[in-house]
UniProtKB/TrEMBL annotation:
One Pfam family named in its UniProt record: BTB_2
Cross-referenced SMART domains: BTB
Protein name: Potassium channel tetramerization domain containing 6
Domain BTB: 35-136
Gene source species: Sus scrofa
Domain of life: Eukaryota
Gene that this polypeptide is encoded by: KCTD6
């Protein structure tokens, strides 16, 4: 039989509006903490129980809904907390399960740490500061490298592009197949299709086509769930009359391991 958690109520002390008043065995009156409570967190509404909100009595929420901390209400009568509304879902789920579960593509760790610090939920703070990976052990990172190499003439004024090579390198074969299938407009420029690489080469009159293809490729890669991890620029001088400039973009996404 589930245990009923009761809050002692003394004359003149605060008690949750949504709690049910019930007489305890010793004759005192208490408030049951199983009735639903609606919170407005930064404009986002959440409904939970007082038992969940007071799971950690030393936290800000524990103090707030234990009567030791002042509360505010919105015009509809919901408890109001002026914090990050979307991130509160992870805080609330942690209160419910004592486990931190995040999406594979979650990136707002610093913001979530600030929320955990604000609510003073010590186990959540420790979990976020734990050096062990937050993601399941059956995940790994897929990487895509996109490079644009331009050879420039030193004697042109302004400097002219002699040749440009655009290369995509990745072990994600489905991505390479997609590029080969969906970017047929640039097939005449496709010079190399190795196992883990696709390259396009453009002559001096095709510079704007290379830029157009690069923009479309970056959009295509990000739509497959990849995000840019970093960018690099490298300047090289191969010949007396040429400069070579190489731009690199690294894209990453998390994926789950599959049994062979």
């Amino acid at each position: 039989m589930p245990c009923k958690v009761l809050v002692r109520h003394f004359p003149g002390t605060w008690a949750p509006r949504d709690a049910a008043l019930e007489q305890m065995d010793n004759g005192d009156w208490g408030y049951m903490m199983t009735d639903p409570v609606t919170l407005n967190v930064g404009g986002h509404l959440y409904t939970t129980s007082l038992t969940t909100l007071t799971r950690y009595p030393d936290s800000m929420l524990g103090a707030m809904f234990g009567g030791d901390f002042p509360t505010a209400r919105d015009p509809q009568g919901n408890y109001f907390i002026d914090r990050d509304g979307p991130l509160f879902r992870y805080v609330l789920n942690f209160l419910r399960t004592s486990e931190l579960t995040l999406p594979l593509d979650f990136k707002e760790f610093d913001l979530l740490r600030k929320e955990a610090d604000f609510y003073q939920i010590e186990p959540l703070i420790q979990c976020l500061n734990d050096p062990k990976p937050l993601y399941p052990m059956d995940t790994f990172e897929e990487v895509v490298e996109l490079s644009s190499t331009r050879k420039l003439s030193k004697y042109s004024n302004p400097v002219a592009v002699i040749i440009t090579q655009l290369t995509i390198t990745t072990k994600v074969h489905s991505l390479l197949e997609g590029i080969s299938n969906y970017f047929t407009k640039w097939n005449k420029h496709m010079m190399d299709t190795r196992d883990c690489q696709v390259s396009f080469t453009f002559g001096p009159c095709d510079y704007h086509q290379e830029v157009s293809l690069r923009v479309h490729l970056m959009e295509y890669i990000t739509k497959q769930g990849f995000t840019i991890r970093n960018t690099r620029v490298h300047h090289m001088s191969e010949r007396a009359n040429e400069n070579t400039v190489e731009h690199n973009w690294t894209f990453c996404r998390l994926a789950r391991k599959t049994d062979d």
